Amino acid sequence: MSSYGCVVEWSRGDAPFTDGRYPRAHEWRFDGGAVVRASSSPHSVRVPWSDPQAVDPEEALAAAASSCHMLWFLSLAAEQGFVVDRYSDAAEAQLGPIGFGRQGILAIVLHPQVTFCGPRTPDDAAVHKLHEVAHERCYIANSLRSEVRVEGGWRMAETSRP
Predict the structure, then answer these.
(1) Which domain-ending residue is among 14, 38, 55?
(2) How much is the average pLDDT of 56-79?
(3) Co-location of 73 and 143 in the same domain
(4) Residue 118, CB half-sphere, CA atoms under 13 Å: how many?
(5) What is the pLDDT of residue 157?
(6) 72/150 same-domain check
(7) What is the DSSP letter of 39?
(8) Is residue 147 part of a domain?
(9) pLDDT top residue among 1 and 24
(10) 51 with 65, same domain?
(11) In whole numbers, what is the pLDDT of the chain averaged over residues?
(12) Taking the mean position of all CA atoms in its chain, how far away is CA 2?
């Protein structure tokens, strides 16, 4: 069994607290040394108590699902001899009511745009199958109760370079 983690650090500083006027900005520190500035979403907590330039947990969840899917897709494409030149995804997490007065992520929608190059060209069915298997193998998608959908496209690069 593998274990993954990060350190989340927040400090109030000299801001008031019990009146709700405290900063939500904090840091995520990862084992490889990466530090990500994070905050509550400005949709949840208004500025100046949230930092709109920081990553919020809802965005991070969409990014994690997208990244996991992409990494599996690339691995599977390489195994099948398809050369991926570029992969871009404008992923989104959709927040809404889940019952009992609570909110949750209802769906994560991936919009991958994949560019292939080289002599072996996939067809629509092959690309669809790559996304299907990547989705089945994605640890993040397998861990979520909400739906994770993939609505993407693909194309060949203008110039073929293997």
Answers:
(1) 55
(2) 97
(3) yes
(4) 15
(5) 86
(6) yes
(7) -
(8) yes
(9) 24
(10) no
(11) 93
(12) 20
Written as six digits, the tokens of 108 are 């994560």
Residues present in the chain in total: 162
Number of folded domains that form the chain: 2
Structure tokens at 13: 């500083």
- Answer whether 0.70 is exceeded by the pTM: yes
**Can you give the pLDDT at residue 158?**
83
Question: For residue 58, which phi and psi values (nearest 5 degrees)?
Answer: -65, -40
Q: What is the DSSP string of 91-160?
A: -EEEEEEEETTEEEEEEEEE-EEEEEESS----HHHHHHHHHHHHHH-HHHHH-SSEEEE--EEEE-SS-
Domain of residue 67, residue span: 57-156
Confidence of residue 160 (pLDDT cuts 50, 70, 90): low
**Ordered strands of the 26-30 beta sheet:** 6-9, 26-30, 35-38
List the beta bridge partners of residue 95.
105
Q: Do both 111 and 132 map to the same domain?
A: yes
How many whole angstroms separate alpha carbon 23 and alpha carbon 19? 12
Q: Report yes or no: 117 and 81 within 8 Å, Cβ to Cβ.
A: no
Calculate the dihedral angle through the C-alpha atoms of 117, 120, 122, 126, rounding to the nearest 10 degrees. Answer: -130
Specify the pLDDT at position 162: 58
User: Are 47 and 76 in a shared domain?
Assistant: no
